[in-house]
Design goal:
The structure is a homodimer of 362-residue chains. The first copy, chain A, has 362 residues and is an alpha/beta fold. In chain A, 28% of the residues lie in helices and 25% in strands. Chain A is elongated and about 70 Å long.
Chain lengths: 362, 362
Amino acid sequence: MNYPWPEPGTPLHQVATPMPVINEDRLSANIARAQAYCDKNGKHFRPHIKTHKIASVARQQVEAGAVGLNCQKVTEAEVFADAGFDDILITYNILGSVKLARLKALNARVAKLAVVADSDVTVAGLAATFDTDRPLTVLVECDSGAKRCGVQTPEAAVALAESIAAAPGLRFGGIMTYPAIGGAEQVEAFMTRTMALLSEKGIECPVRSSGGSPDLFAAHLVPSATEHRAGTYVYNDRSMVRAGHCTADDLAMHVLATVVSRPAPDRAVLDCGSKALTSDLLGFSDYGTIDGFDGARIVSLSEEHAVVDLTDCATPFREIGEMVRIVPNHTCVVTNLFDRMVFHRDGVVTRVEKVDARGTVW
Amino acid sequence: MNYPWPEPGTPLHQVATPMPVINEDRLSANIARAQAYCDKNGKHFRPHIKTHKIASVARQQVEAGAVGLNCQKVTEAEVFADAGFDDILITYNILGSVKLARLKALNARVAKLAVVADSDVTVAGLAATFDTDRPLTVLVECDSGAKRCGVQTPEAAVALAESIAAAPGLRFGGIMTYPAIGGAEQVEAFMTRTMALLSEKGIECPVRSSGGSPDLFAAHLVPSATEHRAGTYVYNDRSMVRAGHCTADDLAMHVLATVVSRPAPDRAVLDCGSKALTSDLLGFSDYGTIDGFDGARIVSLSEEHAVVDLTDCATPFREIGEMVRIVPNHTCVVTNLFDRMVFHRDGVVTRVEKVDARGTVW
């Protein structure tokens, strides 16, 4: 895209909108705080790259002490392998000949690669692809209450672990879960029961991986877990503030937008639509908050317009051509819409980074 | 993105998912039907490129008889100018020095370029940028009931038209509206009143442009309009079927996805999350329909997973590793997530086109 990305040194008010921008100091502080917490509580920390999708930010996370990276898809992991990362967990059932062939090639060049599985079908595909020359580590994904993927019981987890352990080309690496918010007790119960059953069978369970930014600072409530995975914590967003994970002072991403129309006294229109903010509501009834304008509600989005209802906004709103700063509901999905990301310190652009893994859905 | 895009001749069941695919025959039929309707009713037809964002599809639309293209942002128009299109209407208030400079450069190389304005601020910026050497055509955007942008009354439209006509570098081109669904009467009333007032002032109003796919086949109910703009009609989606614009047989886009988990009898998980379908609900309570599985509801999306509730699905659902075909709620936003788009005829890939204007939000 032939867009005039700002040079370092450009003040943010000169940046063409809509544009998400990342506060360097808050980014660094978020990385440091999460790592310090995990260090203090004896957990490995494995950041999920979905939120930033940028190799240099992942480098900041690893340099701070992260044990490795978490990716969701094979093509995503390829991007970070290309950038030199050597410890990657893909928390996804990889299926089908195209992806399995790519996964095998990836395993040949990444020092520590692991995937998850929650079914015999997934394990059978992996077992038929990998061999003893270069075995693949597989964790069993467990559903500890989030009701997405994962085996439903510790007994099922053990049965799948046995299948993995029995496959010559696979190594059973442990168990993994993505808990419902506040599900520490359920996660701990699932893990301890599974570990006990595995122990009875003489099967080692070296890694017990839990995850989620909302649960990050509750990771100490899951003593059985050896590592925690989290993505959103690195930038934070409106949903993280609501979850109590952070405060407004920890928000590293804002979306800059310009007022393009003031058609009626109770209505303003911004130049950031669903192609900039996405339609993710995450349980909210509007599409983000506008800094400094309490009561101004982004009530609808079309692709290139955000309609703001000013009925309950006591502060005189910005005029046409003026800029506002939006806290998005969900930061990860905003990242996926932009080819590059603008970073700043105190409102002055520091760098513009390619969003290396934008669009990786395979 | 290093993805194995399928070669022409590949059967769709071999395509790695998630992947939106376009049915060539339905695409051609949708283009032909809309053009025939507009021809029959004496309207110019101006397709909005937002839905496909692909130069070769725009070429099909123009070859069928479209008068020109409709874009929303300057960078979007640049992409289609680069591809040789010479009649482009940008239905947006263009503001700020960066975009105005780019708009001026664009006007120097596009034979027929026009923009819209709904405020004195927008007109002042345009007037200060353009001169008599290469004037810019400006239409007044009118709010005929959709409550997005647009002047609120015919009187305000005329006042703005006078400002445009008085600027040496601008030419008043007419009026434009984006109506609420089913708003033909309101559009016609706004247009006739504005035209009468302009006529009293001796101001010509050559173009009266209305728009929207839901209202496309009701364009004859707005006799005053000279042209109609529509985007979604070219692929169609679940919302267009609901609006009565088309039937399921006119759906040109489907999203192919694979079952990656069957964790419980009432639940399946697909590999298409919000990074493939987007979270656009458009008033629905779920995220698309799954062809052939009535009652299967996509109840939640995370970035890479779709959770399907099978409680009310009487048909035995697909097993892990098998493919399904989804009708998305909103096709335009799906297009914006993919670097390339796969086309097929009778389930065999015909071509893979770059999504030329993906990510153009400026």
